[in-house]
Amino acid sequence: MTDSDRRTGLTVTHRRYVPYAHAHYAGDLVDGAYVLGLFGDVATEVCIRTDGDEGLFASYSDVQFRAPVHAGDVLEVEASVTRVGTRSRELSLQARVVCRGARASGDPAAAESAAVVLDPPLVAVTAVGTVVVPPTA
Q1: Do the Cβ atoms of 97 and 69 come closer than 8 Å?
Q2: CB-based contacts of 57: which residues, under 8 Å, 6+ apart?
Q3: Cα distances (angstroms) measured from residue 19 to each of 36, 42, 59, 110
Q4: Is this prediction's pTM over 0.85?
Q5: Burial class of residue 25 (count of CB atoms within 10 Å of its CB; 0-12, 13-18, 19+)
Q6: The dihedral of CA 6, 51, 61, 27: what is its sign?
Q7: Would you give per-residue pLDDT tens digits along the chain (137 residues)?
Q8: With contact defined as beta carbons under 8 Å apart, do 95 and 75 qualify?
Q9: Is 79 buried (19+), middle (13-18) or exposed (0-12) by CB count in 10 A?
Q10: Beta strand extents in 1-137 (DSSP E only)
Q11: C-alpha span between 79 and 24 (Å, rounded)
Q12: Element housing 33 (H / E)
């Protein structure tokens, strides 16, 4: 299998509301592990689509926390296959804030339940990861 494999370029996207129960820090900040968990979810779907198996996350070669994630945000999490090996798949991962709750938006006049759509979305976390799947029979 090579980079010209038909699976290269496959992209899977999930969206998730970040509940306030996941806020661990002042300002309703959410820890970075929350987004890494979402990367695992989207990587699982990639493995199912490419190989018919949930696969396992083997490693990250790069993780960049670029902007904060707050409770009340809506995240769009994307995984794209960049390389296909015999049993490994390298993924480019990105988490973007597409909506932000009023508490984190900084508008003191906004209602507590208000939220805004971010256009363009805010790139919060990027990563490169490797998943592995069982050998084919």
Answers
A1: yes
A2: 39, 40, 43, 129, 130, 131
A3: 16, 18, 27, 19
A4: yes
A5: exposed
A6: positive
A7: 445 788 899 999 999 999 988 888 888 899 999 999 999 999 999 999 999 999 999 999 999 999 999 999 999 999 999 999 999 999 999 999 999 987 666 677 778 788 999 999 999 999 999 999 998 75
A8: yes
A9: buried
A10: 11-17, 23-25, 29-30, 56-65, 74-84, 88-101, 115-132
A11: 26
A12: helix 32-51
Distance of CA 132 to the CA centre of its chain: 18
In the structure encoding, which two tokens stand for residue 74, read together? Answer: 């809506």
106, two tokens: 């900084």
* Amino acid symbol at 125: V
Residue with tokens 């990367």: 39
What single letter denotes the amino acid at residue 72? G
Q: Two tokens at 75?
A: 């995240």
Residue 75 near residue 19 (C-beta atoms within 8 A) = no
